[in-house]
Amino acid sequence: MASEGAEDFDEINDTLYSQGATDGLPIVPPTEERVEEMLRGTDLPRDHEIGTLGNREGSLTVEKLATNAVMAGCRPIHMPVLVAGAEALADSEANTIQSSVSTGSWAYLWIVNGPIREALDVQSATNAFGPGYRGNGTIGRALGLAYKNAAQLLPGEKDMGVLGSPFKFSLVAGENEEQSPWEPYHVSAGFDEAESTITFGAPNSYAYANPFEMDVKGIIRGLVKNTPPSMVGYEGQSVRKEVFYFLPPYNAEELHDAGLSKEDVREYIYENAVLPDYKYHEGIISADVERDEYDILVPQFQDPDRINVLTAGGSARTNAIMGPSIGGPVTKKIETPDNWETLLEEYAVTRDWGEEKDHYELS
Fold this sequence. Notes:
By secondary structure, this protein is α+β, with helices and mostly antiparallel strands. The chain has twelve helices and 13 strands. The protein has helices at residues 9-18, 32-38, 62-72, 79-90, 96-101, 116-120, 134-150, 185-188, 216-225, 249-257, 262-272, 340-346, and strands at residues 49-53, 58-61, 109-113, 172-174, 197-201, 206-209, 234-235, 240-247, 274-276, 297-299, 307-311, 319-325, 330-333. The strands form four sheets. Strands 6, 7, 8, 11 and 12 form a five-stranded mixed β-sheet that branches. Strands 4-3-5-13 form a four-stranded mixed β-sheet, with helices on one face. Helix 2 (32-38) packs across helix 3 and helix 3 (62-72) crosses helix 4 (79-90). The N and C termini lie far apart (56 Å).
């Protein structure tokens, strides 16, 4: 932690970069004053251990999390989300050690649900995954930096991603609950609608899926046919893989108006997403095996529970598919501190741009 005025901005950035403590982008110097202010965003003591990340050396305390939050450009109002996100990272079900060091270049996916989205301006509609929104950009960056620095996760030493991924900088969106015809994701996970949560996943691919035709059949067939062969869902002894489908409100409403629930959509994908078995070996195409087009077909998903359906995005029809996730999904409740209303007043999020257009009715 640097002292106020000890070094100028460039020197602090150069020092931390040389130590491997940044993500390659400039950081906000984590001075004692800034870290102390960040700690106002939680009632937990600074020495409270949230969990152990990585193998053995990765103890993440509240103070360490606050330090990385400052570096990422967060404000104290982001701390409740970061604490819950850090708890998800430390959860054994998240499988973060495998996703963090694997050659597969997995990213950390974060979905925010509940009323805290609006308070922090976490975008869930147009341009939901960014760029341009502080909450979306800094929350994911802070959690990535916290894991990297707690676990000493340096590229080429522990992070062995063959190609890496720009999604590792930040992959955060809120679910568009206001325009969704279905119950929110966190409610499906067992939380109350009035509660706020953050969900972790670890995909390494992002695919757009335009409907085949602008009708119910075209939308749902497009979800199936645009799912890459590598995006499989199953649960084995050492890994669980799942896929996330993000539908904009137009498509979600179209399906809902046709009488389809989220469970119906998951069931349809499960029943209709099939692959020739020579393409199905834990999602890897076996090019050295010669088979003909009449080969037996096998399910792409072991069961519907390996499929996650959410509403996100703005007024268009483009869907997104992310996966396969080898971590989670893990959902944690966000707890706000006693001084929450005061913090919201002090750090009110305002902007004079990007006012969301009205959500037009389907024609």
